[in-house]
Specification:
InterPro entries: NAD(P)-bd_dom_sf, Sc_DH/Rdtase_CS, SDR_fam. The protein is α/β, with parallel strands linked by helices. Helix content is 43%, strand content 14%.
């Protein structure tokens, strides 16, 4: 039931650490995977990795905030593979001015940086969904998987802009699942994965010292994660494969935590 043989998947941000792991996982379970990202070099590197592992992959160099580049990407994937069955909205990130550092207050927040973070995380999920999910509606079948965060579910200090934009993803996931089922039937499903704490390019310096030991913030996170560690990127694959496959055919509108128990723990 978890096989994805012949399914066509797009992973935005598939050139990143977490998106890349999900792209590999979908490929290993039989999906053809299109890796979408802004940077040609890293997109091509990810595609080659998937191909070298025996998978079928396609490079899509596009910006999730640029409608025309997304339309070109859609045309390319339809020309190559003829359908779009799975969309993983993995592109996202944070920006310095939307983070409240320990020596700052809320009143130091940069509205410009906040808008940029919201654009990337929220609009950067909505716009690809607008472009790519039309094909799913035509097919009357498809799975959209958004990427949320623990920052959407709990009040986590400092990351104000990121938290707010990921909370919007949770609401959008639920709203769109209802909208699509009401208007187009049961075939197109919308769910989200909420990763706990994983070490990536953007947060490495916040979580780890240069010698690999935990920073004070990293230690707090581990102390409040019952499994007492950070997640490994490959540990997102199981949830993504399940949500992409017919094994979750009666599942829509949910946010699945992959967090080592962080969301279940009250800190006592």
């Amino acid at each position: 039931m978890f096989e994805l043989n012949g399914k066509v998947a797009i992973v935005t941000g598939g050139n990143g650490v977490l998106g890349g792991a999900i792209a590999h996982g979908l490929s290993k379970n039989g999906a053809k995977v299109a890796v979408l990202g802004r940077t040609e070099e890293t997109v091509n590197t990810r595609v080659k990795e998937i191909q070298d592992a025996g998978g079928e992959a396609l490079a899509l160099v596009a910006d999730v905030l640029d409608k025309e580049s997304l339309i070109q990407a859609k045309d390319k994937i339809l020309t190559e593979w003829g359908s779009i069955d799975i969309l993983v909205n993995g592109a996202g990130g944070n920006k310095k001015g939307a983070v409240i550092t320990p020596d700052q207050e809320f009143f130091d927040l940069s509205i410009e940086a906040l808008d940029s973070v919201t654009q990337l995380n929220f609009n950067g999920t909505i716009l690809p969904t607008l472009i790519f999910s039309k094909e799913m509606v035509k097919q009357k079948k498809g799975s959209i998987i958004n990427i949320s965060s623990m920052a959407a579910q709990k009040s986590i200090t400092r990351v104000m802009g990121y938290s707010a934009s990921k909370a919007a993803i949770d609401n959008f996931t639920k709203w769109l699942s209802v909208e699509l089922n009401h208007k187009y039937g049961e075939g197109v499903r919308v769910n989200a994965i909420a990763p706990g704490f994983f070490v990536g390019e953007q947060n490495r310096d916040l979580l780890l010292n240069q010698d690999g030991s935990l920073t004070a913030r990293g230690q707090k996170i581990v102390d409040n994660t019952p499994m007492a560690r950070f997640g490994e990127p490959e540990e997102l694959q199981g949830a993504a494969i399940w949500l992409a496959s017919d094994a979750s055919a009666f599942v829509t509108g949910i946010v699945v935590p992959v967090d080592g128990g962080f969301s279940a723990f009250g800190g006592i």
